[in-house]
From TrEMBL:
Record-given protein name: tRNA dimethylallyltransferase
GO molecular function terms listed in the Swiss-Prot or TrEMBL record: ATP binding; tRNA dimethylallyltransferase activity
Annotated site, Interaction with substrate tRNA, chain positions: T97, R120
Cofactors (names): Mg(2+)
Positions of substrate binding: T12, A13, S14, G15, K16, T17
NCBIfam families in the cross-refs: miaA
Positions annotated to bind ATP: G10, P11, T12, A13, S14, G15, K16, T17
Keywords annotated in UniProt: ATP-binding, Magnesium, Nucleotide-binding, Transferase, tRNA processing
Keyword Secreted in record: no
Oligomer status and interactors: Monomer.
Amino acid sequence: MIPKLIAVMGPTASGKTELAERLADELDAQLINADAFQVYRGLDIGTAKPETRDRYLLLDLKKPDETFGVGEYVQRAHRELERLYGEGRNVVVVGGTGLYVRALFESYDGMGDAPPAELREFLNAKPLERLVERLRELDPERAEKIDLQNRVRVQRSLERILAPSPSIGLALPPFCKAKLAVVPDVPITDERVARRIETMMQNGWVEEVRRIRSEGYSCEDPGLRAIGYRTLWRYIEKEVELGEAVATTIAETRRYAKRQRTWLRSEPNLIELDMGDALADARRHLNMQ
């Protein structure tokens, strides 16, 4: 029997992790993370890392001050998938970063090797303003097309210019593939987001940010772009009140969930599950009944 490769997608707080883990139980499948910020060690509460981390691959790969992007993700995931296919294992990929899933499943081209470590360290040490200035000098056209407030995108653009590498084309092993989505109604998602943020606060999210701060990391580090971390950093710095920080984080998360829903509407070959019983609907589409 051909092994299955299943993606479980959905906006924040949609229940995709629970569904993915149920499917993995029933299929004896390996779980693989597809969340851009769950790859960072120490960012646990605010990224909603799963409780059973030992069941997952591609969690806790990087320190908060290290960069990570879709190219490295796809290369790492591809290596794991080749191994798992060779073992005849089913795989369930789950996470909120739609680009990672799409790039992996649709075999995106145009991704290159990571730049030399010395170059990355050199750029990491430069302030964003200097990176923007350098990008405008080297490639003004590219500088016009990207968000110059996004350090990761600016730095990646410079890395591609200063250390070009040949594109890597990665073809997935011939799994039986399916992409499933759980998309609750907007009011349900908004309510779940608020409850999730409140629970994160009760579980010690502020203390997590304090610990990261005490370890010498900067709020400008790539990992700290995850929603809520910089806002709570500002609370610790006494720039905002706690209530304002929580409200801001809830609003930002709801906006992110809206962007995720927009992304999913254009996702190729996506099966949106019946929210009345998503697990049963998933079983039906996967011929598990």
